[in-house]
Amino acid sequence: MSRQQTSRLTIARGEASGPQAAQTFEVPYEPGQSVLDGLRWIRVHKDPSLAFRFACLNANACKECMMEIDGQVEYACLARLEPRDMQLAPLSNKALVRDLVTEIAPPAERLRGKGR
Amino acid sequence: MRAHLQLIDSQAQGRPMPNAAHEPLHLETDVLVIGAGGAGMYAAIESARGGASVLLADRALIGRGGATVMAMMTVAVALGQDGPDDPAFHFADTLAAGRGLCNAPLSQLLCEDGPACILEMDAWGVGWARNGSAIKAAFAPGHDRPRCVYVDFLNTGPAVSKTLRTALHKHKGVRRVGDLLIVDLVKSGDAVTGAVAIDMSTGAPVTIAAGVTIVATGGLTRLYRRNSASANMGGDGYALGLRAGARLIDMEFVQFFPIGHLAPRMIGLDPIMWDPFRYKLGGRLLNGRMEDFIGRYGTEETGRYITTRDQATYAITKEVEAGRGTPHGGAYLSFMHLSEAELKAAFGPVIDRIRDNGIDLTKMPVEVAPIAHYHMGGIAVDSDMQTGVSGLLAAGEAVGGANGANRLSGNAITEALVFGRRAGRTAAEMVRLGASATAFRTADAEAALSLATAQGTRGPNLAAQVAELQSLMWEQAGPFRTGEKLQKGLARLDALVASLPERPPGAPAAFDTERLDWFDLRNMTLVARTVIEAALLRTESRGAHQREDHPGLSDAWTCNQFITLSGAKPVTARGPLIDPPKLPAHEAAQ
């Protein structure tokens, strides 16, 4: 029964320049939570080095938490955390920065501009 | 002098960057705007219209982070289109809500310049809701008449942000840069001449030379466990301003929004969404026994939404303390007296989003409770948004004083737009009078640069320390305070600060979240201290600052508290109220 109370998030981690590897975290499951809630829980309780973008908190206003969840592009704040194995990966069509963070800003709004 | 922004780095010249983490970039601009919410974007537009080159920097994406994009509905403005109104009436309501502490010239500026900004936003196509040809005005608590404009459905913030982003694009002189975290302002002599930042996408340090710097970083609600803000609102601007010699005002006045969503859990919706529901539909606030209770605390609601934020926060908290709360420790908000058709007519697709969360509003109430929402305090400025430190301006929620001890509903976005525009105008004028990036000296940036590139060991979990700070602020310096609680808060804060490493952990690297937490905690712990110390000194209850050991308003406290930095320590002192001007100077300037 206790396994049903846990979400297992397997997260693709690493920097653009370095090796990438998947790491699995067990997150206590609470009905109604978002995947973003689970990621924030991991940072506070397990691993503060986990990188993902977000500004607003589950309001889906900032649109920064876009990632691939079980292979689908989704906002982590809209995707439900579920008591099962879930696969999280950075957007595959954007340049990787670290872990789940990719370059999603328009090129003109990056420090190194369009040539990046 | 008005040269466009230069990017002086090896990559701009086509060479690779062998060690991006240690290669400082240097940027030059007439005006640096820190924060790309409503205030920052308007400031950038207005600076550019005045002929200045602008660097608009944000630690998140441009126009995405901050509070503006999260605004649900109301923007207070005396347009007088949807019924008679005048800025003088809006001003009077703002002063009354501020419980005697407003910086009246700022409040007046907010009310008098509001219509011009709102109409300009209308011309830019924001899409204010209409009543025929008139921009529709909704009624909100504390106003003497319907005065709040909005964009349907619950779309005010996103629409305002998108409109400003689009307007920004028309100005070639504005360079927009996201993922840029400002570490410190740089002072050359007595003047702010730029800033040192971290390029979050590489971890590399960045120096910015600027003739004028505008702090538009928003408020501090991230200091609290339950908050309705974005993750970026940890009070950065207050800390940057303090360390650069600016004064903070009214730091004890944190506004708690009374009916933040509590339960059942919802995703994809802002926790303050029930406010617009109350504007449009009234709704009933009930205790855990499903009884009306607001009337017991002095304000009788008869179907209309008239209870101000401080009154409602008080009533809900007291009801919970008396054992009459809901299962999760709040109050019920019920729309069960309404039909599906009535709900849909008012909020369209939002009703479906609520239903997707398993909530049928016609059949069940939701639970709500106070949530940290806005900060009345901030950087002290004059009506031109000047901080008193040469070269440094502030705008938006980063500014303190316009809303006194309690902000009137709807004044936050108006303040962002009006103060942003005013700051941009002042900055452009300063550039015309000779302010330029040439005053910046690299030597003056050394201390901040060495901090930005410092390498430390990985120690305690800093994300957990942020959570501890949020808990201590919620528990010891929340809506209801006592001397004892606040003292305990200071002790917990001291312990937390003592546990933090002296240097940022690790070495500069791309999106190193632990290093970012360290820089955030450096600011958040300083700002938290200003809130607790000011709250401890103010031995009365007024507006959003409620001292249970000092109930009631005291005439002796009809004054502001100002905070400056002495060494590393904030020092709080009383100062007299700023009087209303005889003739507003900004009218002459227009």
Keywords for this entry:
heterodimer; A: 116 residues; mainly beta; five-stranded mixed β-sheet; two-stranded antiparallel sheet; 7 strands; globular; B: 590 residues; alpha+beta; eight-stranded mixed β-sheet; 15 helices; disordered N terminus; disordered C terminus
What does this protein structure show overall?
The complex is a heterodimer of chains A (116) and B (590). Chain A has one helix at residues 35-45, and strands spanning 6-13, 21-28, 66-69, 72-75, 85-89, 96-98, 101-102. Chain A has 116 residues and is mainly β. The longest helix of chain A is centred in the middle third of the chain and has 11 residues, at 35-45. By secondary structure, chain B is an alpha+beta fold. Chain B has 15 helices and 22 strands. Chain B has helices spanning 38-49, 87-97, 104-123, 156-169, 236-243, 274-281, 309-321, 340-347, 349-356, 411-432, 446-453, 462-476, 483-499, 513-537, 585-589, and strands at 6-8, 25-34, 54-57, 75-76, 130-131, 134-135, 148-149, 174-177, 180-188, 191-199, 204-215, 248-249, 254-263, 284-286, 331-334, 366-375, 378-379, 392-394, 480-481, 546-547, 560-566, 569-575. In chain B, strands 1, 2, 3, 8, 9, 10, 11 and 18 form an eight-stranded mixed beta sheet that branches. Chain B has a four-stranded antiparallel beta sheet with strand order 17-12-21-22, with helices on one face. At the A-B interface, α1 of A face α12 and α14 of B.
Q: Indicate the structural class of chain B.
A: alpha+beta
The average pLDDT of chain B is 91
Q: What's the count of strands of chain A?
A: 7
Low-pLDDT windows of residues of chain B: 1-18, 581-590
Based on Cα principal axes, name the global outline of chain A: globular
What gap, in angstroms, lies between the N and C termini of chain A? 49 Å
Topology:
The complex is a heterodimer of chains A (116) and B (590).
Chain A lengths: L5 E8 L7 E8 L6 H11 L20 E4 L2 E4 L9 E5 L6 E3 L2 E2 L14
Parallel strand pairs in A: 1-5
Antiparallel strand pairs in A: 1-2, 3-4, 3-5, 6-7
Chain B lengths: L5 E3 L16 E10 L3 H12 L4 E4 L17 E2 L10 H11 L6 H20 L6 E2 L2 E2 L12 E2 L6 H14 L4 E4 L2 E9 L2 E9 L4 E12 L20 H8 L4 E2 L4 E10 L10 H8 L2 E3 L22 H13 L9 E4 L5 H8 L1 H8 L9 E10 L2 E2 L12 E3 L16 H22 L13 H8 L8 H15 L3 E2 L1 H17 L13 H25 L8 E2 L12 E7 L2 E7 L9 H5 L1
Parallel strand pairs in B: 2-3, 2-11, 3-8, 11-18, 19-20
Antiparallel strand pairs in B: 1-2, 4-7, 5-6, 9-10, 10-11, 12-17, 12-21, 13-16, 14-15, 15-16, 21-22
